[in-house]
Amino acid sequence: MIAVKLSGRIFDDPALVREYATILSSIEESLAIITGGGSTARRYIEAARSIGANNYFLDMIGIEASRLNAWLLVAALGPDVYPRPATSLEEVVTALGYKRRVVVGGLQPGQSTATVAALVAEAVGARMLINCANIDGVYDDDPSKNPNARKIPIVKASQLAAMLRSNALPGTYELADVWSLEVLRRSKIPMYIVDGRTPNHLLKVLREGANPGSLVLPE
Amino acid sequence: MIAVKLSGRIFDDPALVREYATILSSIEESLAIITGGGSTARRYIEAARSIGANNYFLDMIGIEASRLNAWLLVAALGPDVYPRPATSLEEVVTALGYKRRVVVGGLQPGQSTATVAALVAEAVGARMLINCANIDGVYDDDPSKNPNARKIPIVKASQLAAMLRSNALPGTYELADVWSLEVLRRSKIPMYIVDGRTPNHLLKVLREGANPGSLVLPE
Amino acid sequence: MIAVKLSGRIFDDPALVREYATILSSIEESLAIITGGGSTARRYIEAARSIGANNYFLDMIGIEASRLNAWLLVAALGPDVYPRPATSLEEVVTALGYKRRVVVGGLQPGQSTATVAALVAEAVGARMLINCANIDGVYDDDPSKNPNARKIPIVKASQLAAMLRSNALPGTYELADVWSLEVLRRSKIPMYIVDGRTPNHLLKVLREGANPGSLVLPE
Amino acid sequence: MIAVKLSGRIFDDPALVREYATILSSIEESLAIITGGGSTARRYIEAARSIGANNYFLDMIGIEASRLNAWLLVAALGPDVYPRPATSLEEVVTALGYKRRVVVGGLQPGQSTATVAALVAEAVGARMLINCANIDGVYDDDPSKNPNARKIPIVKASQLAAMLRSNALPGTYELADVWSLEVLRRSKIPMYIVDGRTPNHLLKVLREGANPGSLVLPE
Amino acid sequence: MIAVKLSGRIFDDPALVREYATILSSIEESLAIITGGGSTARRYIEAARSIGANNYFLDMIGIEASRLNAWLLVAALGPDVYPRPATSLEEVVTALGYKRRVVVGGLQPGQSTATVAALVAEAVGARMLINCANIDGVYDDDPSKNPNARKIPIVKASQLAAMLRSNALPGTYELADVWSLEVLRRSKIPMYIVDGRTPNHLLKVLREGANPGSLVLPE
Amino acid sequence: MIAVKLSGRIFDDPALVREYATILSSIEESLAIITGGGSTARRYIEAARSIGANNYFLDMIGIEASRLNAWLLVAALGPDVYPRPATSLEEVVTALGYKRRVVVGGLQPGQSTATVAALVAEAVGARMLINCANIDGVYDDDPSKNPNARKIPIVKASQLAAMLRSNALPGTYELADVWSLEVLRRSKIPMYIVDGRTPNHLLKVLREGANPGSLVLPE
């Protein structure tokens, strides 16, 4: 059992979704796939905020947008997938009792899809979580600002949590947050962070045991 | 009881959604509000089609997009609304048993939101359906092509159905389709078609008994 | 995957239901089976109308009656069937993920079970819809009135739709309606209409590739 | 809060259903109404038995038939009723939180609707259960066989249970069974048994405190 | 298909639960497993009664406690079990369509888990019900009071029902009640009563065809 | 609207539950009440851990235990409460549309009931969260170890989060965690922490505007 998180950004490009669908369909092992909300979520949340919606509704709207992305992936994955996005951890676990692939978006307000990914990985007993992110790995500084920022191949979850708390890495909220790291640690699930814009990095991890991005150890 | 259909296009403009929220909140009578899928639906359906999704999934994705619009309106309508989009006619009817306003998007594949609007209006016993459309009324020809096309103030549903069948009016699928007109006729529900880009037309119908667009008689 | 529509009339005769159960159980291919409401639906709808029920309730009662027929078939089909009637397209699709046979009655007000059959066929990706009807095929005139009416072996869906619109064929509403034909056309699903009172006609279509009634081409 | 059980036989006669709807609508107090399966249930159960269905399915089919009767009553009761039959005790209790009237048919295999009526009465805290039965009261012998059988105006539940166990009263299964009487006893709910073919007996009990049939004391 | 009832008492001892999990996991045949409420149910019901809760809530609380025990067993049974307690007969039957083991606690107020066990056994078509009870069989008198009470190896359900009615066997309510016996009789399901504190008695029945406790014949 | 969190420990003492029921029933304002899992949760989680259950199941079992406590409170609160524990934020929000009081236990694995309380408070728009805890306030050191530990009357959420991170306060996980504090901050909801063993402290906050424990400012 593998858990795969797809950044919401991937869904801005249908060709990329199709590539992922082809790759995911070629994997023999069972898969729980978590989709982010991406630009649709951001656009709708912004609209809702301009209208005065409270945080509960902002988050519900983001969840609904991530489900729209999940529907797109379900439609692309063909007959061997649970035929709708799951809407609770229990549904993910139940559906994987008879289907090899299940797709799920957000689940609850106050929770990033990074956290959903960790909770899903834990619930289904995944041996690893592959996070196809909007960045190609963990950096020691913000690479969009510091040209000397270096990618860190292997990092402990506890170290990454400390980096996140220090706010040294703006914009990495989507990548992982403190809570998701705690879940991965308590259930000893390693997380690979790979570049979501390069779908075959997913296969590199699975087929070659390579680490094309960063590996977060559950320590 | 009034049923109000909001064109999906309205949701491209948050300011317009806010105006509608203000107007709808000012109406004393109970309201069942149906939201279209708009540009989000079109974009996702197009993406799904390019990936090879079948019609069932294309329609489910359109429904999901219309629910995203419904969430936006729910968030804008504040405490006197059923706090999530209904997902079946039974839920609409049940929710209106204790809340004055309920919002609903699409319901089922193979069905336009125009038809959903007619079915909702029938189920809740609405005395009229106000269709805030992407056009300001019914025309005798396609106004985008024929500058001499004239708006028809009053038209029988049977006449409009004949016009739709003759394909003389391209692009009016969203406005009404044959099935939605049959539902309105069998339950004797008049439909006002008004310009969705001018929210106060809704009030003109309700408060002044005016007909700023076209009135479709259930005959 | 095959979709089979059973006319509600079949359920007036338990022996006929048993024959169908035996035949359907002998088919290897996966099956989505749609049951009509028949005389129970008519009797209850008539009662409800005499009491003053509105169209929403009349249709809900017809749906409930078709589910009673669906229960009867489920009970007759034994262990290889999803053990209750499905109540939504999503449930049909999900249940066929692990069971070879699923039974479903009506789904929503304003919809004939002919339309449900077409929508189900589309959703499950059926390669054909076999309509075990209350008549043995499509006629060029009403055979109950015109002794010279001739059965049409092959007809295009567009032609049949035109015939239905012209009202030349009273009582064929159950057989097919305009909307069901549109669904079949858009998803390219051929429909065989066979005599529901002769269960082995179903096998003739499936096993021999014969056309004992009429074939409606999705054109 | 009052619980009213309507014999399934009542639903064979739409005019009788209409009379009950009028009477029930005139009652100010909150109402939980339980409908039996009647002749539709018997006909379908017989058909299912002839097809070889097991007891689970026979009972599910009887439950579904009682829900069809419940739908008919819901349609007749108009806007002040929960707009669909409840399908669990929890739904009955929840629905009575905002609607004055709720209708429910059978709930579970292995359970008479007499027992459902007692459980519903207990769950909603009814001060009495009025059983509009297929007989006008409790008799000391089978009145269809013994012309000297006498109606018993007041009987203790424990006595009635003993009579039921002795099988002295064939055909009274629908009226009450041992389990339903235990529920009424443990929650101290008196049951009036009145003639279901005479709707105003219901009002006699409620408005005049009369006992036109038999009163079963919860002792 | 086998139905196994586990006395709630078993769940007071985690080591015993683990033993049962090991044994149940070793059985090839499909299993429907019913869990009692045990001491947790008793403690909460007593608390609720002291607070003045009515019988509906007392029973719902007992049901919820039996589900807590069911969760514990689900967690112990590993990947080949439906991953949550079922909450209705329909869910039990549906889940056994793709999982070999399903666990269920109580279902409805007014019903012992002994009755749930009989209904589940009937619904799933079990060839026997093995009742791992809080006693090692049926006795001809209360063994806790009469040292000469003798265990009865084989008893007819009708005899046991008569014994239960005579109140000669206090405290056996959990073992079986009149209603559960009627269900077993009507569906011809034999019930073995074995000592729940000795898990391998379950295997003795299944593997050796032995009768280490009492056998209740469905007559 | 007020949100009230009741420590699971409260449910060890039925008399205390009854006191809380009386107090909560006397409050005019709408209430969302969150119950912890307490000793039942701990006992079952320990049992499950000894059997080898994974974290997903440990948490689900804790959630189920908190729902058992929620049932107890629902039973004690009488007719003005939503008649069962809510099981999702959406159900909480929907139920408060027609009932003045709703009770909810845990919602999802990986989440403390402290976090549930914050999310519920946010979703329902509570003006404050009153946390009836297992301690009488926030201390600057562990009061069970350091007799000189001082209670802090007012503390900023950001300060409390820093204290929690520094692990200076063992055992306060139940009181609040970092995530719950973030939710309170983003939605500007103050939290009063009061001694759960002294129910009238709840009234002191509500009626007198007093601060008998600690006030956590959403800053």
Describe the structure.
The first copy, chain A, has a 7-stranded mixed sheet, sandwiched between helices. A two-stranded antiparallel sheet of chain A has the order 5-6. Chain A is globular and about 45 Å long. The first copy, chain A, has 8 helices and 9 strands. Chain A starts with a strand and ends with a strand. Chain A is of the alpha/beta class. Chain A has a single domain (2-138, 153-158, 170-217), classed as 3-Layer(aba) Sandwich (Carbamate kinase). Chain A is 43% helix and 16% strand. In chain A, helix 1 links the parallel strand 1 (2-6) and strand 2 (31-35). The interface between A and E is small, with 6 and 6 residues.
Order of strands in the sheet with most strands of chain A: 3-2-1-4-8-9-7
Question: Helix tally of chain A?
Answer: 8
Strand content of chain A: 15-25%
- In whole angstroms, the N-to-C terminal distance of chain A is 21 Å
Which whole number gives the mean pLDDT of chain A? 93
Order of helices and strands of chain A, N to C? EHEHHHEHEEEEHHEHE
Q: Can you lay out the helices and strands and say which pair or pack?
A:
Six copies of one chain form a homohexamer.
Chain A (H helix, E strand, L loop, with lengths): L1 E5 L7 H12 L5 E5 L2 H14 L3 H23 L11 H7 L5 E4 L8 H12 L3 E6 L4 E2 L11 E2 L1 E3 H9 L12 H9 L4 E5 L4 H9 L5 E4 L2
